[in-house]
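Session log. Operator J.P. requested a structure for one protein chain; no other inputs attached. Running the standard single-chain path with C-alpha cell output.
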Amino acid sequence: MASYRNQDGLHRTRRGRSRGSSVIATCVVLAAVAGVGYWGYSTLFKGAAGDSEDPKVAAATKAMTAFLDAWEAGDAGRAARLTDTPDGAESLIKSVMTNLKPATTRIDAGDGERKDAKVLVPFTVTMDIPGAGAYSWKSKADVVESGKEWKVEFRTEMIHPDMVPGQTLALDARDRAAVLDAEGRELKAASLVGSVDPQTGKGVSGLEARYDKQLAGGSGQGKSVVVVDRASGQPVKTLSGGGEAQGKPVRTTIDPKVQEAAAAALEGVTKNAAVVAIDPTNGHILAAANKPSGMNRALEGRYPPGSTFKVVTAAALLKQGMKPSDRADCPKFANVNGQRFENQDQFVLPPGSTFRDSFAHSCNTFFVDSRAKLPGAGLHEAAQAFGIGGAWDVGTITYDGSVPVSNSDNDKAASTIGQARVQASPLVMASIAATVKEGVFKQPVLVPDAVRKKYEAPARLDAGVVDSLRGMMRATVTIGAGKALRGISGEPHAKTGTAEFGTETPPRTHAWMIGYQGDRNLAWAVLLEDGGSGGRDAGPIAAKFLKNLTK
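Structure written below.
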C-alpha cells in the first residue's frame, strides 16, 4: 500500500499501485531535470516529498492515514485501536457516525509537521449527509511515538474542533414552516398535508413534498449538523444550515370548520371514502377529507361518476331544446345493439313522467334512449362547459376528468349515465355542482399563491340551461332519490349516482352524491368506494356533513 498527494497537498491511500509505475514516473522526472544541476535536482525532489524525508514524520503520517482510513470506512473499533485512548475514541467515532449516518465519507490527510516528539497532521472530513447535504470541516491531530508504534493522540476536539469533552455531532431538524388553512392555522388534514421523512427531514408526500423547498427554506435541506451534549442530547451549537433563509408557510384555501365537518362525516365509515367542498364563487377548495388517510382520492382519484354525470347529460339535452316539463318515459329496460341497460332495482316511472322526474329519480333508461338527440361529440362538448378534461392549475396534483367523444352507439349510451370511458374525481364532481350553483365554471384552487394561470372553460352554459338544472337538482331532494337531504336547512340541491365497476356479475358499485346549498356558497361531492347506492349509502354521509355545518 502506498500513498500519494492530491492537488491540495493532501495524502490519500492508493491501493494496488504497482512498483513498475513508480519506476516509470521516476525516469520521467529524471529526464525532465537533466542538466539542471545538483541544486535544481535536490530542490525539485524536496518539494515533491516535503517532510517525508524525516522518517519520524513519515511513520507518524502513515499511522494517521491508517486511522483516517478506518474512520472513513466507519470502522470505529479499528480506528480506535490506532489511538492512545481506544475506549474514548471508539465511543465518540461510533456516536458521530451513527448520528449523522453519512451516505459517503471522505477524509484526506495533509502534510505532517514535526513538533518536538510529536507530529501534527492536519486533515479534512467531507460527508454527504441525507437531509443535511454536503458538510465538510478541517481538523488536526497529534501523533505520538509509543514504543515501536505511533499512536494518534485522541482528544474530542480532533474529531471536530467545535466540540469539547462530553459532546458529539448529531442531526437536528431545522425549523420547517407549516402548511396552513385559510385562517392561518396549521392545517389538520393529513391526506392533503402529507408527511415528512423523520430521517432526512424532507417532505415525501402531499403538500409537504410538493412545497418541500419552500417549507424547509434555504437549500431545502431539512436537517442541520449540530453539536449536542451527550448526556442530555440537547443541541449546543449549530454547524450547518443555521444561516440559511427560514422556510415559508404554504397557505391553502381550506376552511377549518368545513374540513372538520367533512372529516366528521366520514367517522365510522368502513369503506374508502372522500368528501370535497368548494366555494362556487371562486373555486376555493374548502374541504378535502379522505377515509382512510393517505391516498388523496378526493382530488386525485379516478372513478366512473355514474348518474351524477347526468347533470352534464341533462345540460346537453337542454341545450338541444328539451325542457324539464317535456315527457320522459322511463321503462324498465333499454336495449342498444343487444346490450341491455336497466334502472336500479329495475324501477319504472308512471306514464306521463317528465324530464324533471326522470332526472330526480335517476332513470337510466330515459337517458340512454335520449342519446339520439345528441351529436357524437355532444357529451364531450357539454363537459367542456364544466371545465372537465382541462388542465387545472390548482396548486397540487389533481385529476381533472375525461369525457371522450363517443366512438360507438353503445359507448354513447353508456356515457349518458356516467359509465363507459367517462372518468372523474370527487373534486371534478363537486366542481360540476359548483358550476350549476354559480352559473359558470370557476377552476378549483387549493394554494392560491402557487396558481399561475387558472383554466378557462372553452364553453359556457346558457342561462336557461342553468336555471333548469337548478330546478332539477332541487327536485332530486324534494321528490327524488336525494331524500336523505330532506329537512336539512340551507335548501340543498343534489344528484345521486350509482356507478358500476369491475367485471363481476352483478357488478359492484361506487356510491355518489353531489350538490350545493341554495343559501350559501358551498358545493360538495361524496364518494363511497364499492359503497352500494348513491341515495341509500352516499346520501346519509352527505346529510351528516351538511348537518355538521349547522352545529
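Operator note: Residues 1-52 have pLDDT under 50 and may be disordered.
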